[in-house]
User: Fold this.
Amino acid sequence: MEKTIFQYSSPGRIGVALPVLDVPETAIPGQFKRKEPIGLPEVTEGQAMRHFVRLSTMNFNIEKGLYPLGSCTMKYNPRLHEFLARIEGLAAVHPLSSDSSVQGTLEIMHKLGELLCEITGFEAVTLQPAAGAQGEFAGLLLIKKWQEERGEEHRNEVLMPDSAHGTNPATSTLAGLKVVSVKSDEHGRVDVEDLRSKAGENTCAFMLTNPNTLGIFESSIEEITKIIHDVGGLNYMDGANMNAMLGIARPGDMGFDVCHLNLHKTFSSPHGGGGPGSGTVCCREILRSFLPASTVEKTEDGYILRDRVGKSIGRLLAFHGNVGVLYRAYAYIRTLGSKGLREVSEVALINANYMKARLKPYYNVPNDDGPCMHEFVASGADAAEKGVKTLDIAKRLLDYGFHAPTIYFPQIVKEALMIEPTETESLESIDAFIDAMISIAEEIEEKPHLVTDAPVNTPVLRLDEVKAVKDLCLVEPVEYEQ
Ligand SMILES: *Cc1c(COP(=O)(O)O)cnc(C)c1O
Assistant:
């Protein structure tokens, strides 16, 4: 068992050398004195250093290896963005600064908004939402407000396919709308006839993740968006999967009216630890007047952060939004340019298709009727006869040094493994992941206990995941099982 820093503690051991006292010594007044010893470990600087470096390597991260977490787009984030986002004139601006003193930040925000509108094919934008889910919420409120303005406030239904990302029904409910589920056909696409039968005078919006959560592009998209427009609804695209179509296809050209982008996914900000994100929303001109406070505008006197009044849906986040993410997204787009962005998506598609083709002999890929987009969904259901579940496969991958794919989602695939390699992986790392998956498939046949007992090479063995979330303990020294 590895020792924790508390077990290395030895009374009187110290990690710092304070300078000689050169002022008169005084006693600390009684009321400021600690009643009990503080209980910190007493260790050398070297021991403290090793403690923190060891901790920093215990979790998996994209700098450590391939992280094929489907739908999350865990791509490598170039260091250049970190450098740019930390430039003092950008990083140190105060949220209450006057517009005239933060023209650089406002200019970047304004230009980023224009670039994102061009990428999505829309006219208006808000950079405020802090995450994809908040972007969805904002987008739905825009649509709801538009319906109200037209005297159609009775429209309270959001149609969405049963493959929808979990946040879609959640945000619809939060926006006060009712979710109406639309079936998927045998290829995992929206069942157009089912949609037609459910669209009607109560339809407020249609919400679609495209490419869908099976990694499949909705081929009837223009027909679908027209059905909704014809009954008086608007179309919302969950653009969290935009990594599949940069420079290739635009939601605005497909008949959508609003879409959010996950800048922290497609446009490359470190994410996954619950840190700041951006669920920027782009929309058609007809929705501009409802955009949240506040937006950056260009005037003759420079850029201003305008507090929108009147028809605005209101404020979603304090001040300018998560500007650190916006700087990185701007740097990403400007360094790649339009050709580079298209190449990002092309390589993301090639990588996913290559992986799917090599894994297909070993894992069942349901709904597979041609090339996938940036991700694909395999099923671990065949392993059930050996007593192995998809969860076990995911845990075994950790032993091979990879992060697990997204599992048990989408729910329409049994024992789902949703795999998204992204464009930033080399052929070598993609092949290494495939080889690990093939080895696991062989283990399932020959020695399934290796898979069901996994992980054995990680700092912490298999956890009671529910307990780990509900009963998290960060302060007690933990004894690691090894
Ligand atoms: C990630 C994701 C979301 C939610 O984004 P958050 O930033 O986590 O709120 C919504 N839809 C899809 C398809 C996603 O992949």
Notes: Residues 71-72, 131-133, 165, 167, 209, 238, 240-241, 262, 277, 279 surround pyridoxal-5'-phosphate (CB under 6 Å). The two ends are 5 Å apart (CA to CA). The first helix runs from residue 5 to 8. Residues 137 and 175 are 6 Å apart (CA to CA).
